[in-house]
Design a protein that fits this description.
Length: 464
């Protein structure tokens, strides 16, 4: 009798607490903290985008411009957009390059505007879906903020500020849109064609976008209604085959030091974990980072990557249970996790032999944002402790998270602005006629080829 009474009392207290959380105005404190924190966070992100902006082409930008100039001279109506570059179909980048050169005479702002709109849209759409999938609206507001916090980091601003990095933003944005459509109420042939179109859009940003296809196949397989399944499972592999077999060869360097299969396998695993540890594992011979940063990143990053991989696989392997909206949110988060892990696996295959070290450029970090969103949201909606937080405790926890996030934003801003500033200095020295060994890493590996492209740009009056 006492046990029954005690259980009923606890149930009544939990229900009363939930009513207080969901009562009108109960989340006002949470919203106030959230609004201020996100405003500061977004301001730092936009400031990093503007201050880190690099107008002059460099590196792969010269190769992309060479195809653009050739297309103009040959009056190519658009076939050049499909021309592969280092194993990728960079359709969106080539299209923006054409607009920038032919309409704006080489200002580079169109790249940043397009990438900024894409990353803003991805965060808003993901946040909206998360908010709709959580019944407790105070908690829903907090979890919805995870999307912009993950996507709008100052470290990801590097992919918005620099034209040749924008394809990663486009790939991630199309992937997020595809996963959202996969969890919509639409069904049938039209929905399947829409999923294929979005998957193709992701792959037109960068080949890593092809990871969207198998993830979508898993997502629709987990749905109770599988009307899209036959078409997607037939057309999906065909789409991947088209992109892969027309992508050309990647510029891969062979290893100087021979490796045994075991050594190569260990190095593949290390690179995979290092990639999954982005942005905290970011390191590059080009990055002008504080002394001691890269050794720490090479230890901490893979450790974080291991934790995220284990958590991600554990959460993605568990089936969704609950209301329909909750199931859709659960599957959406699982898709985000699997996409980032698949992107990391593709990076191991595509980039491992390009360097003997564990160099993972910061420009890939936007591809790991879906992993962070999926893990945090799934941990929260599957945790009973989080569901019992009252608005006051939730506001305090949110304040702490936002404070740490803003601190991370400030630190990332310092790293990116220092990096971009150094690139601009090297490019300015190159334009002034100075030639140093460092320029082969930043400007272009073959400086004679860079000189030819620079002269051609002057002749055509672009990027001047």
């Amino acid at each position: 009798m006492n046990r029954t009474t005690s259980s009923e009392a606890r149930a009544l207290r939990r229900n009363a607490e939930l009513r207080r959380v969901r009562a009108p105005g109960a989340e006002s404190g949470v919203l106030a903290v959230l609004a201020v924190g996100l405003a500061v966070y977004l301001t730092l992100f936009l400031d990093t985008v503007v201050r880190g902006f690099i107008r002059a082409p460099y590196g792969d930008g010269f190769d992309i411009l060479a195809i653009e100039f050739q297309a103009q001279d040959q009056h190519d109506p658009g076939g050049y957009l499909w021309a592969p570059h280092n194993g990728h179909h960079i359709v969106w980048l080539r299209l923006l390059t054409s607009l920038d050169v032919r309409v704006f005479h080489g200002q580079s702002t169109i790249f940043s505007i397009a990438a900024l709109l894409a990353v803003l849209a991805a965060a808003v759409l993901a946040a909206r879906h998360i908010w709709r999938g959580v019944e407790d609206k105070a908690l829903a507001c907090v979890l919805a903020a995870v999307a912009p916090l993950a996507l709008w980091t100052s470290l990801n601003a590097f992919d918005v500020s620099v034209s040749i990095n924008t394809p990663y933003v486009f790939a991630a944005t199309f992937a997020v849109a595809a996963f959202l459509l996969a969890e919509s109420q639409a069904n049938g042939v039209g929905a399947a064609l829409g999923l294929l179109a979005l998957a193709a859009g992701a792959a037109m940003g960068n080949s890593v976008g092809l990871a969207t296809v198998p993830v979508l196949m898993i997502a629709v397989l987990r749905r109770p209604d599988r009307g899209r399944l036959p078409l997607l499972w037939v057309a999906g592999p065909i789409l991947v085959a088209i992109f892969v077999f027309t992508a050309g060869q990647m510029a891969v360097q062979t290893q100087v030091t021979p490796e045994t299969p075991v050594e190569h396998g260990v190095r593949m695993l290390r690179y995979f974990l290092t990639f999954c540890g982005l942005p905290w594992s970011a390191s590059s011979e080009r990055m002008s980072t504080p002394a001691g940063f890269q050794p720490v990143a090479q230890f901490v990053g893979p450790s974080i990557g291991l934790l995220l991989v284990v958590l991600g696989l554990y959460l993605a392997a568990r089936p969704a249970r609950g209301a329909a909206a909750r199931d859709r949110l659960d599957r959406f988060c699982c898709s985000l996790i699997l996409f980032s892990l698949a992107a990391a696996a593709m990076a191991v295959v595509g980039r491992l032999n390009a360097s003997a070290g564990m160099q993972v450029p910061i420009r890939y970090s936007v591809l790991l944002a879906p992993l962070h969103i999926g893990i945090v949201v799934l941990l929260a909606i599957r945790s009973r402790a989080v569901g019992r937080l009252n608005p006051r405790n939730m506001s305090v926890a949110l304040f702490v998270v936002l404070a740490v996030g803003v601190g991370h934003q400030v630190a990332g801003r310092y790293v990116i602005l220092r990096y971009c500033g150094h690139i601009r200095q090297v490019l300015a020295a190159y334009d002034a006629g100075r030639r140093t060994p460092e320029m082969a890493r930043y400007v272009y590996p073959d400086l004679r080829r860079a000189d030819q492209m620079t002269a051609e740009m002057r002749r055509r009056g672009v990027y001047q």
